[in-house]
Design brief:
This protein is of the alpha/beta class. It contains ten helices and 20 strands.
C-alpha cells in the first residue's frame, strides 16, 4: 500500500475552476489506430540488431490521440507505441493535413521510445529501402495516414468535457548515465483526467520518464513494452482510454526490482500509481478555456560532421546502410534542426515538447522555473537524438558523447529557455513601460 501523504499534491494542482455561462466551450475527443506492422521489417532501437527483421507481435502497437477543442483552437496530444515520432517531412505533412481536415492547429506527438517498434527511417528510394525493405517502406507510407486518421477521429468525437490533474513522486526510474552523486532523476508521475459532462472518464494522459528497454534486444517481436502494459491495466480499471506521453528519459531507465522485473509486473505497478492518482482527481470545466501555442525550429551545426565519408560509413556499419543513408537526409546541408513546441492550456498548464532524448534535469529545471503546472514531453514532433545537459556532456558517456548526441552543446538549455519565455509571454507577464 502507498502512504496517503505521497498523493497530497493531487488536491493542490486541480485548480481548474468552474465554467461560467459566458465561457468558451471546452470539448475533448479521443481517437485510436492500430499501427502494428503487418509484415516483418527492421526494428528500431538496438544497433546490434542491424537489419534483422521482426519475427512477430508480442503485443500490438497503437496511436492514441486526445484532441482538446476550444473554439477556433484545437490541440492534439498523441501518444505512439513507437521508438520515436515521425521524421521531419512526415511530421510536417501530418500537421498540415490535420489542420486542413480537422482544424487542429497545435500538435504534441510523442513516441513512447519502445525499442520493440519498427524502424521509421526508410523510404521508397534507391539506397534508402527500395527493393530491399519494401514491406517496411510500405508500412511507413501507410503510417502517415493512420496517424492523421487517429487525430481526425478524435477531433470528430469532441464533446463537452471537464478536466483535472494530479501528480506524485514515484521511485520507478533511475539515472543510467551519471557517476556523480546524488544522481538526478525526475520521479514525477503526472496524470491528466478528461471526463465528459457527467463525470465519466473520456481519457487519461500519463506522463513519466523511463526508457522502455526492459525486453531483451534478442526478442524480435513488436511490443509496446511497459507503457503498453500500464495503459492496458488503467483502461481496464476505468473503462476509458489511456495515453502515455514519455518525458525527459534520455538518462532515465526503469528502476527494476525483483517484483517489477518484467514489462507486465512493472507496467502493472506503474498503473497502480496512475490509478490511485486518477481516482483522487476532481475534474471541472475550465474557468477560462484557451489554447495558446508556439512552434520553434532551432538550428545548429552538429557535433559530428556527417558530410565526411568515413563518418557515414561508421553509421552504416553500426546500424545498416539504408537506415543510415535515410537518417542522414535530415543533415544534408550540415545543419541539425530540432523542434520545440510550447503550449499554454487554459492559462494554467504548460505543455512543452522537444524532439529528442532530453536528460531529466532539463525537465526538472523547466518545472522549477515555470510557476504553473508544467509537463515535458520528449521524443516529440521529431527525433534528434540525445540532448544532454551541459554538465552531462562534460561528463561524457553514452547519451552525452557526440556519437549519439549530435546537437550543439547547450542546445537543450537554449530550447528550455525559449519555452520559459514563451510561457511567461503567453501569461502576459512581460509588460512594456507605460507612456511609450
Amino acid at each position: 500500500m502507498h502512504s496517503p501523504h505521497r498523493y497530497l499534491l493531487v488536491g493542490l494542482v486541480v485548480a481548474i475552476g468552474v465554467g461560467t455561462a459566458n465561457a468558451q466551450a471546452f470539448k475533448v475527443g479521443f481517437g485510436k489506430r492500430d499501427i502494428t506492422p503487418p509484415k516483418p521489417m527492421p526494428m528500431w532501437g538496438y544497433g546490434d540488431r542491424h537489419a534483422l527483421l521482426s519475427t512477430g507481435v508480442r503485443d500490438p502497437l497503437h496511436a492514441k490521440a486526445v484532441v482538446i477543442d476550444v473554439g477556433a483552437d484545437k490541440l492534439a496530444i498523441v501518444g505512439l507505441d513507437l521508438g520515436r515520432s515521425p521524421m521531419t517531412e512526415m511530421m510536417a505533412r501530418i500537421r498540415a493535413t490535420v489542420k486542413e481536415k480537422a482544424g487542429v492547429n497545435y500538435v504534441l506527438m510523442s513516441g513512447s521510445h519502445t525499442h520493440h517498434g519498427p524502424v521509421l527511417e526508410l523510404s521508397d528510394e534507391d539506397g534508402k529501402g527500395k527493393g530491399v525493405f519494401d514491406d517496411g517502406v510500405a508500412y511507413i507510407e501507410s503510417l502517415e495516414g493512420l496517424l492523421v486518421d487517429a487525430i481526425v477521429e478524435a477531433a470528430g468525437n469532441v464533446q463537452d468535457a471537464r478536466m483535472g490533474w494530479g501528480q506524485a513522486d514515484v521511485n520507478m526510474n533511475r539515472n543510467r548515465h551519471t557517476k556523480v552523486e546524488p544522481k538526478p532523476t525526475d520521479p514525477e508521475l503526472t496524470v491528466f483526467r478528461f471526463d465528459d459532462a457527467g463525470g465519466k472518464p473520456i481519457a487519461l494522459v500519463v506522463n513519466y520518464s523511463a526508457h522502455p528497454t526492459m525486453l531483451p534486444g534478442e526478442d524480435l517481436r513488436f511490443s509496446a513494452e511497459y507503457p503498453g502494459q500500464m495503459m492496458a491495466a488503467v483502461e481496464k480499471e476505468f473503462d476509458a482510454n489511456c495515453v502515455f506521453m514519455q518525458g525527459a528519459a534520455g538518462d532515465m531507465s526503469p528502476n527494476r526490482t525483483p517484483e517489477t522485473d518484467t514489462i507486465e509486473t512493472f507496467g502493472k505497478a506503474l498503473a497502480g500509481h496512475v490509478m490511485e492518482i486518477a481516482k483522487g482527481i476532481e475534474t471541472a470545466v475550465p474557468e477560462k478555456p484557451s489554447i495558446q501555442g508556439k512552434d520553434d525550429l532551432f538550428e545548429g551545426t552538429p557535433r559530428i560532421d556527417f558530410k565526411l565519408p568515413f563518418i557515414q560509413n561508421l553509421f552504416k556499419q553500426a546500424f545498416f546502410p539504408e537506415l543510415a543513408t535515410r537518417s542522414l537526409d535530415e543533415f544534408g546541408d550540415g545543419k541539425i534542426r530540432p523542434q520545440l513546441t510550447t503550449v499554454l492550456l487554459n492559462g494554467n498548464l504548460a505543455l512543452i515538447g522537444g524532439s529528442g532524448e532530453f536528460f531529466c534535469n532539463h525537465s526538472n529545471r523547466l518545472k522549477e522555473r515555470i510557476r504553473i503546472k508544467t509537463v515535458f514531453f520528449g521524443y516529440c514532433n521529431g527525433h534528434h537524438m540525445y540532448f544532454p545537459t551541459v554538465e552531462g556532456a562534460a561528463e561524457g558517456g553514452y547519451g552525452a558523447d557526440a556519437t549519439v548526441s549530435w546537437v550543439p552543446l547547450g542546445m537543450g538549455e537554449r530550447m528550455m529557455d525559449q519555452a520559459i519565455v514563451h510561457i511567461y509571454t503567453m501569461l502576459g507577464n512581460y509588460k512594456l513601460p507605460t507612456g511609450l
